[in-house]
Amino acid sequence: MYNSSKNSGRRIANAIIIPMVVVVTTSVISIFGLMHWSARLSDETAVQSQHKLIAGALQLTKNYLVKLQSGVVIWDEAYHRINGSEPDQGWIYDNVMHWLFQNHGFTKSILIDRDFELVSIYAQNHTSKWMTPDLFDALRPSVAKVRARYITSFKRTPSGLFSYIPKSSDARRSIAETGIVALDGEPFLFSAAAVIPQIQSISRDRFPPSVLVSMVPLRGEKLKDISEMSRLDGFVLASMQNERPGVGRFQLRSPLGADVGIIAWQTTAPGTQMMQRINPFLALAAFMIAAVVIVVTLFTRQMTRRLARSESKAVHAAHHDALSGLPNRSRFHALLTDILDESSENGSNTAVVYIDLDHFKDINDTLGHSAGDKVIVAVAQRLRRVIPETGIVARISGDEFAMVIKDCEDDVWLEYILDQVQDEIGRPIMIGRRELFASLSMGAAVAPRDGNDPDELLRKADIALYDAKANGRNRRSFFEANMEHHVQSKDKMSRELRMALKNDELDLAYQPQSDTSAKRIVSVEALARWTKEDGTVIAPSQFIPVAEETGLINDLGLWVLNKACAKAHEWPGIVVSVNVSPNQFKHPRFVEKVMAILASNNLPPQRLEIEVTESVFAGRNDSVLQALRRLKNLGVKVALDDFGSGYSSLSYLRRFPFDTLKIDRDFVSDMNGNPEAEAILVSIIQLGKALGMTIVAEGIETIEQIRFLQAHDCHRMQGYFISRPLNEAALTQFLEEFNSDGPGTFGTDLTLQARVAKA
Ligand code: C2E
Ligand code: CA
Ligand code: CA
């Protein structure tokens, strides 16, 4: 059971916790992911704008080169000296190329004439090896562009002459091209500009220009300028291709698109910076969320576990009887249904046994409910111990139990188990220092013989139980078809009993009691009899308990009293004993009613004896004692019935001065040759006498019992041996014969035997 509670707890917990953990984790992960993604994005846009900044700065630098160079290329003297028939190399060296180096740091220059021929090479270190055909090829497109732009700036006028109209408003820029080339793997910025006169006027012809290409290495100061212009730090030139995070790379290309180097710099990554700044907070938040999730998870787990535990406890409580721990009625029904399904499949026999504790009510009434509870617990334990492993024991109600016994292939096995049950229950039960002897009645029905439906089997087992109880306590019955007609439900019986009372279907039988000598009948016990219209006889052991349960006993009891008192007149001198049930004493005006009955029947109280059992003392009994005392004071005799069958018999003898003590018939029937039973019987007789009571022995069935009781001077004797209960007429006749007979002793007096037989 606890496993299943654990499982269901886990199921509930998982149903709540797993989705919660999934939702929380995915949202945390996606929030973090989103933040990182947007940080990346902002880093990327930052790098892009840094690229634009570098490109801009580079362009500005190139424009500046053009400006610096323009000082020598837009110059009439230079124009003429360069484009003269024989270029003046010395002058060009001093005033153009070297001047550009000295004043503006152009470390290298070349001059290309109108025919696209290289006419002059300058390097600050006086070498010319650097000027390779490859380099020339790299510069060629820029030079060509300059030449073309210059030529196409000459527009033919209507007079046939050419007029110079620069393409751009900035004259300097319209004649220049800039770019980057690699020299020995090192990038150089260059500016290529047409050498033109200061004042361009109208001319007759148009010629391609000479072009001066001036170069400055892209390093040191220049690089620093670009870095400052673009507001980016730590520019380095890199040729290697390896990329690294946090390092920006700006690709430098020659006019022909060749790779001439890379500007590398430390990129500013605002997203990453932001992330770095908020990362600790994010970590803290994540930690806190995780902590909350864990706490909530643990809490939920604990709550659901507690919930599941209390649920399974509730389920257990709903299915089990709290006192005995056995399954209860509804659970029993469910288990029985399952077992019957199973057994009808595999064709085995299943027995259902109903069990009723005998006289449990007396235990409760006389010893209190806690003793009753202990008896129930003890019985439950013993039943569980005795029945086979596969069987089931359940507590159906107060003192009712039920069992299922599987695989009862024959009744012998079932009988054997029921024997075991009876033996086990027969052992004394210790309540404190007191030994109690319990017994039980059982009724069994067997599937499939008596049916396969659980309700039908239970009903039949109940009928069998009724049958067992009707035959006296500590018995058992197996269901038989004819029982169904005899045994009736309590409901039906109480309805019919009510009708029977009204319709005068009840009657009284009278059982004579003789004196010690067994020669005279001194009293008779009135016993209720019920014969239904159809002739069925219902035993008092069946209908008296029903009458007590339904409260009908009050009317029934008064009817019996009235009838017995009325008939008493027919048997002068005979005392009439009437059984009065404890419930009748609960009626507040019971004594008055008895008095009224005596008065109306004109019967002296001394002729009436009432028999009570010790259960009248149960509970708060002051009023009962008072009523008994009042009856006794009136002169009515009071007898303690079934003495010895209960549990506290001796103490009751002290509490009320009974006139008569009726020894329970079990003692008498146990007597036969059993020295212990005889000793008990003798001591009860002596005790009663010592207390000044009249002793009556019940249930005498043999001559030996009579002889024994006579030997011990028992005052009165009652039993089948003297006479069975008789109807009015039979009693009248019996009394006439018996009481008028001369002296005779049992055993020799055949006429008495004959009479007994006749009755
Ligand atoms: P009880 O008061 O102990 O009555 C004696 C019972 O023992 C009677 O059973 C009687 O027939 C039976 N009996 C007498 N002699 C012998 C014998 O030699 N051997 C055996 N085996 N039995 C013997 P009955 O008439 O069936 O009554 C059963 C019980 O029903 C009574 O037990 C009494 O407790 C109750 N009862 C009967 N009539 C009334 C009544 O009018 N009012 C109340 N409250 N209870 C009644
Ligand atoms: Ca009695
Ligand atoms: Ca009795």
Explain what this protein looks like in three dimensions.
The chain is an alpha/beta fold. Helices cover 52% and strands 19% of the residues. The protein contains 25 helices and 26 strands. The strands form six sheets. Strands 18-19-21-22-23-24-25-26 form an eight-stranded mixed β-barrel, surrounded by five helices. A five-stranded antiparallel β-sheet has the order 2-1-7-6-5. A hairpin with a 5-residue loop joins strand 3 and strand 4 (162-164). Helix 16 (553-568) packs parallel to helix 18. The longest helix is centred in the N-terminal third of the chain and has 72 residues, at 2-73. The protein is rod-shaped. The structure holds ligand C2E and calcium ion (CA) (2 copies). One calcium ion is lined by residues 525, 579, 611, 641.
